Amino acid sequence: MSEVLALGLPLHVLVLDPDPAVAGSVRRALAAESTLRLTAVCSLRAALAVARSGTLSCAIAGLPLPEAPGAEAVRRLRVAQPGLPVIALGEGSATDLAVAAMKLGAADFLTKSAEGLSTLLETVRTAVGRAVLLGAEAASDGETVADLGASAPPCEGIVASAVAMREVLALIGRAAPSDVPVLIEGETGTGKELVARAIHACGPRRLAPFLVQNCGALSSETLLESELFGHVRGAFTGAERERRGLFAEAGEGTVFLDEIGEAPPAVQVKLLRVLQHHEVKAVGADRPYPVRARIVAATNRSLRAEVAAGRFRPDLYYRLAVFPVHVPPLRRRTADIPLLARTFLARFEREEARRTGGFAPETLEVLRHYPWPGNVRELEHEVHRLVLTVRQGQRIRPQHLAPPLRAGARERLSTGEPLARCLARVELALIRERLDTLPSKAAAARSLGITREALYGKLRRLGASTRGR
């Protein structure tokens, strides 16, 4: 039984397809879940009437429909019941249809074949579970799903309640349909690979491979060149047979180059040729081969500073940085910490088959005040540890947290601090967060519900600079 059903939540699933045989196939594919309530309709008009009732847990829509071209039915169903997970069904050769459906917010795209429908039940469970979790987390923080931004694509694994992360989601939505190179910048552990995967998954290349190479993970320049571009037999000691590189394996997909700042000079030259001429030579080869894959790169250091220091080619930097995306550190997106903590808790409880009593409010407050030098990855590891160490059904309280977290949070929220100083520090931290994440002081003032003049007054009173934007 699915986790969602185990929580006592009934599932009402809508099946929309003009062919009754498809509805029959879907019914058989979902037969293992006896508690499902299925409603089958053969027209979009009837489906929208059911969706407007707000009772659906999931919709399964065969595409295209006579009343709606392409994947338009996905959009209309999600308008009729906001937040409704829609699983699109189509023919195996309908690649463009699959891409269009995902762009319009479909939870997944499956083929109508027996092989495609064999995963339908698990796909429904995953889609409904994700929607329930997102809805519960958004409600607990006073936000609705719509507040995350209508232009933001559905990005699995990315929690975005803070303004700074909603801006990242918007950038993902703009970058995904294009072939432009993307440079993702951010500290270690902020989730740069998740952003890269989201750009790939939300774009027209989503059905092609997404391949990853950490440019600092291989000990020699030749090995990295071989991994990326391939080599011919005898190109170097140990090259006993020909090898295809990641760019050849990716085809029309995406190659994600993590820690691009670690790439040695010879690799930088070849990457520049990929970006300029869409071709490259395998190690030891005489002729180049064409390259069609998109490049998304990431770095945890300033590439501009690396260029200034002479360690990174400026021409490659400007080619890669056509579309930069900065992922903020966790200490700059504290509004996301409760959401992230609960999301990780649900995941690790499921993976470890252990159920805790959830986070006590004071525990979430400690988590919010810890500086998280290891960013989201550190929070993820701490929640995993908590699931394994607290007793079954036990509420997670501050004393269960690792000592460094308790100590780090105490440094930022000292119990002996006078109330006025504590409030001033919290007020300044909030103002700085808004100034860091919004484009101007005027925008920051509007978000705080005060005038720009009042914001300047607060900054002066708190001893902060009023210069800048």
Give your account of this protein's structure:
The chain has 469 residues and is α/β, with parallel strands linked by helices. The protein has four domains: 3-140, Rossmann fold; 163-326, P-loop containing nucleotide triphosphate hydrolases (Rossmann fold, 3-Layer(aba) Sandwich), CATH 3.40.50; 330-412, Helicase, Ruva Protein, domain 3 (Orthogonal Bundle); 419-461. Helices cover 46% and strands 12% of the residues. The protein has helices spanning 3-6, 20-29, 44-51, 72-80, 95-103, 114-117, 120-140, 163-175, 192-201, 221-229, 246-250, 265-277, 303-308, 314-320, 337-352, 361-369, 375-389, 403-412, 419-437, 441-448, 452-461, and strands at 12-16, 37-41, 58-62, 86-90, 108-111, 182-185, 210-214, 254-258, 279-281, 288-290, 294-299, 323-326. The protein has a five-stranded parallel sheet with strand order 2-1-3-4-5, with helices on both faces. Strand 3 (58-62), helix 4 (72-80) and strand 4 (86-90) form a beta-alpha-beta unit. Helix 3 (44-51) packs parallel to helix 4 (72-80).
